[in-house]
Structures are given as C-alpha cells and as structure tokens.
C-alpha cells in the first residue's frame, strides 16, 4: 500500500498484492485519489484465511521530489 502527496497536494492511494513466492508486480491493483481536502489515510490488514502469519509491518513516509 502506498499513499503519496501529489504536487497539487491531493493524496494518491495505491494497493497491490502478490504471492510470497513470486516477484512483486510492477502494476498496482487499485489506485485512486482522495475525494476532498482531508489528507488522512489508513490501512487495515484482514486475513481471509485464519491460518496465517502477519510478519513485521513497517510504514514509511515517502516524500515527493521537489521541482
């Protein structure tokens, strides 16, 4: 999951998923922009299969390059 502040100050939300045994795909599965001026966001991890392990999750700020 990635949330990026765009040059026009809107937030872009993107998400992709893949099997652990294959390389990360280049394309995003879901992508969209915020609908108002609220730059907040969230992430929820909900396993579909009850026999799963959630490893360490890290959240890192990504700073958009300046022109």
Topology summary:
Blueprint: E1 2-5, E2 11-15, E3 30-33
Antiparallel strand pairs: 1-2, 2-3
Summarize the structure in short.
The chain has one domain (1-67). The chain is built from no helices and three strands.
Helix fraction bin: under 10%
Uncertain segments: none
What is the β-strand count?
3
Query: Rounded to an integer, what's the Rg over CA atoms?
Result: 14 Å
Task: Please give the order of strands in the largest beta sheet.
Answer: 1-2-3
* Total domain count: 1
Q: Summarize the main sheet.
A: 3 strands, antiparallel
Mean pLDDT: 78
N-to-C order of helices and strands: EEE
Question: Shape from CA axes?
Answer: elongated
Distance between the termini: 25 Å
How many DSSP H or I helices? 0
Secondary-structure content class:
mainly beta
**Amount of beta strand:** 15-25%
């Amino acid at each position: 999951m990635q949330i990026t502040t765009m040059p026009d100050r809107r937030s872009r939300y993107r998400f992709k998923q893949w099997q652990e045994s294959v390389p990360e795909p280049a394309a995003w599965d879901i992508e969209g922009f915020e609908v108002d001026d609220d730059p907040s966001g969230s992430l929820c991890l909900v396993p579909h299969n009850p026999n799963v392990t959630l490893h360490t999750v890290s959240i890192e700020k990504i700073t958009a390059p300046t022109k």
